[in-house]
Design brief:
The protein is mainly beta and 127 residues long. Helix content is 0%, strand content 49%.
Amino acid sequence: QVQLVESGGGLVQTGDSLRLSCAASGRTISDYNMGWFRQAPGKEREFVAAISRGGYKTYYSDSVKGRFTISRDNAKNTVYLQMNSLKPEDTAVYYCAADSTPYRIAVLRSTQDYGYWGQGTQVTVSS
């Protein structure tokens, strides 16, 4: 079992930056590919970014590519999402998630493939 707790959200203005953190407990996250997802009001939860177990492979949605960076520190059992050049359309609750299957080779993007979720942290970008 993996327990995840996100932090770092807040209210910012267009063009600002935020760094989200996801602290894990219960099991080392080095066993898992990790992802960030977000859900805006009235919309389905969507993929934002994912990172392989060792941190060597990263993947992004087209909407955040070039602005967001996912990283991990397995020694600290923590995953990060650095968000730059924020836009109002980035407003959402951001969720950290761990792959449901440890040691999976492929890094996946579907919510259905992630079995452990945090409670989410709100990010609001004002125009």
